[in-house]
Each structure stands twice: as C-alpha cells, then as structure tokens.
Here is the input.
Amino acid sequence: MKNWWKVLCIILLLYTIVWGFLGPIPNLDIIHETIRNLYFHVTMWFGMMILLTVSLYNSIRYLSKSDLKNDIIASEATNVSILLGILGLCTGSIWAKFTWGAWWTNDPQLNGAAITILAYLAYVLLRNSIEEEQKRARISAVYNIFAYVMMVVFIGIIPKFTGVDSLHPGKGGNPGFNTYDLDSHLRAVFYPAIIGWTLLATWIMTIRIRITNLQRTN
Amino acid sequence: MLTKELKALLIKEVKLEFRHKYALNGILLYVASTVFVSYLSFKQIVNAPTWNALFWIIMLFASINAVSKSFMQDSKGLFLYYYTLASPQAVILSKIVYNAFLMLFISLTCYGCYSLFIGNIVQNQFLFISNLALGSIGISSILTLISAIASKTGSNFSLMAVLSFPVMIPLLITLMRVSKDAIDGLDFSVTYKYLVVVSLLDLIILALSYMLFPYLWKD
Here is the structure.
C-alpha cells in the first residue's frame, strides 16, 4: 500500500472541512465564526513555507550534485507553493475584511506575503526565459536561494527591529491564539489541516513532476 | 592572490568607465532629470514621509539603471577571458566594490540635486549620509548578483527590474526607515540599532553574492 498518504490526505482534508465548519469554537469578540478561517488561511501558509523549504533544499542539492531531478522537484515545489500562497492571500484578505475592516492593511505579514509571491513569480519568469536545461537549473537555483533568504529576512527579522506593528495575533501587543480559552478545539483541527494541505500540495507536485518527466522523455 | 586579482580588476573597471564615460554621465543625467521632473510636479516638499518616499523611489530606479550594466556590457568572449585569468570571487568582489563606489557617488549626487530643487528637511545629516553609504554597499551587492543572473538569460532590462524588485525590498524598507529617523532628527543613541540592522543585511547579502556567484559563472 504505497499510496497510504494519499488516503490520509483525503481523510484529513475531509475532517478539516467537515469538522472545521461544524466543530466547536471559542466564543470571541470581533472574530466570531471567522476563526474557522484559521484552518484554511494559516494552514495553507504553513504548507507554502514547507514546500518553499523543500524547493530551497533541492536547489542547494542541485548546485552541489548537478542532478536535474533536484531541479524539477525545486521548480514544481515552487509552482505548487505559489498556488498555496495565492489561496492563502485570498482567504487572508477575506478574513481581514471581516475582522479589520479592509481587504488590505499595511501589515508586515501581508506585505511579506505579497513580496514572496512576487519573488517566486519572478523565479518562474526567469525559468521561462532560459532555454538550456542545465543552465536554467543552475541560474534559477541561485535565484531561489537568494529569494528565500531575503524572504526570511523580510518576514522574520526586519519587523522585529523596525517596530512596525502587525495586526496579527501574537504580534504588536495583540494576544496570540494560545491565550484564548478552548484552544484545544482549534488545535484538534489546526494541526491535521496543516498535514492535510501539505500532503495535497505534495500530491499535486508529484503529478506535475511525472508530467514534466514524460514531456522530457518525449 | 585574491587581493592582487581584485586590484587589477578594479583598475580595469575604473579605466573602462573613464574610457567610455557615457555610463556614469548617463546615469547622472538620469538622476538630475528625474529630480527636475519631480521638482516640476511637486515644487517643494515639506512632508517628511513624502520627501523620504520620493527620494528612495528615485534612488531605486537610478540604482537599477546604474548597476544593471555591470555584467550586461561584458561580452561572452570577455567572460571566457576572465575565466582563464581570475577566480570568480575576485570578479564578483571587484564588481561589487566598484558598484558600491558608483552607487555612493550617485546617491550623494542625487541627495545634492534633491536638496537643491525639492528642499532639504533632513535634521541629522550624519545619520542620513552614513545610511546612504551603508545602503550603497547593500544595493550594489544585490544588484550585481541579479545583473549577473539577468545577463545569463540574454534578456533585457525588464527582467532585471522584475528580478531585483522583490529581493531589494527588505533592504529598501530598512533604509527608508533609517532615513525617516534622520529626517526627524532622532538622536544617534536611538537609531544606532537600525544602522546595525542595515550593516547586518549588507553582510548577509554580500556573503550570499560571494557564495552564489561561482555557480553562475561556469557556463
């Protein structure tokens, strides 16, 4: 049974959707029922970061081993994480509208997300502009590593020093979700959802890798 | 060995610049005319955030224009020639150092023109200038590497801009933040930590360019 993880993925996502919409949630001001977006918005971002890290790892591997397999994984992982990133941005935007009152706010997290997507779209553009396989792999790997580091710096380090307040929970003086009561109910869906979305993204990725391999052999 | 190569390559860059002249003069004219256009549309700016934003937007475009040439003007044959003579580290470091000086020169000129036309509202000159100097190093390191990447695609200026904007923004935001403090005249004891952040960013970018360039180099 080598496809057990695909079954697991479907079960986890069904659980996320069904129990995410029906399960008990803490009764919070302002946020109210929108807290259920936690299972979609935040978890998709986690999935994106996991896949971008996979992509980074494969880019570094490619630079040391020059194996095209790594390059294909790096590129497809990036494609899927762009999809997750855009979905995360849309769900986040909807959430922001209903809790903060605007589709877009000047928040380090939001700007970081937008920059990340721009950087990786540039990565895709860069890949399309080079014909030769080995050259494309090498150059895009270099850009991938550079972009990843700058993204981590932008999202993780700079907001701490520049003192720009974030509206997100747990930042800029806002209480984190951990401080709310009944958090175990949220957690019971949150963690399975992260695994579920990541598995789904991996599934899409493997299909895309197989397509790419077939195109290459033809 | 590295320092010797570095020196020779730096001298070559400077000589090439003086021989052609059009590159530096072109970019200075670019800065001057951009500032003049801004002057015609804004007249005077007294609002600190607007002053700051316009200055750095002009700097962003001027720097991309200035540094994008650094690898694109080298032909493929010239690269092959470097390959036989110098180590990749020497090549990238020489370009970064040269571009850092170029950027410093451009940013000071830009600051001068800008003060002349739009007005100077900076209260802490020392902080502003040291921020410009640190920024020049960072901007030059990022754009030199991106220019190397863009030159490999055989593509045009637009790719250079698209590739460099997202990776420039972390540095640019920090620089804008420090220069905002310089405009407001905050004391050095308050803002030194931002200068430390800019220096650390410079170091990260420099280290990345230094490590990654050898992979771009072999063709």
Summary: Chain B touches chain A through 26 residues (CB under 8 Å).
